[in-house]
Amino acid sequence: MSVIQLSARLVGAGRGLVPASLFLIAVASASQAQTAAPARTVGPEATVETRNKAIVKAAFEKWRTGGDVFAELLSPDIVWTIRGSGPVAGTYRGLEEFTQRASAPLVSRLIGPLTPEVRGIWADGDTVIIRFDGSATTTSGAPYRNQFVWILRMNGGRAVEAEAFLDLVAYQQVVENNEPRTQ
Which domain holds residue 31? Predict the structure, then answer.
C-alpha cells in the first residue's frame, strides 16, 4: 500500500485522522528526499540536516527539564501556523503574538509546564519535523494529553516558520473547562 493510498484511507476514516495522514505524507516525503538527495554540508563535520536536528533535539531536552522551548528555539519574528479548525487555528506573526494568543490560553490553565516526550525527529535541508506527545495537569486537576507534529523551517539556528498539528478539540476543552492560574 502506498503512502497516498494509506493517507486516503486515513482521511476517509474520519476527520480526527487528518493530522495523522498529513504527518505520514510529510514523513514519507522527508524520508524520500533524504535518501534521494545528497546532504548539504555547512562545515567540515556537520550537514545542515544534522545541525538543525541537533538544535531542535537540544531545545526539546531543555524543555523536558523545565526550560523555555520558545525562547530557546523560535525566532522573535516567527510565522507560526496552527492547522485545523477551531478558535486557535490560524497564523500568528511574531513570537509575542503566538505566545499571547495561542500558547498562553492553554498554559495558563495548566498547573505546571507541558512536558514533551519526543517520538521522532526528521530533517531535510532547513526543515525539521518533530513528533511528540505532551502531558500536563490542568488547574482543575484533570490530565491533559495531546499529540503534536511541528514542521519547522530553520534559519541561523532558530525556527523562522512553523506549522503545528495537534488535537484542537483537546486544547479547546482545557481552555473552556479550566480557570486560569492566578499569577
Answer: 1-37
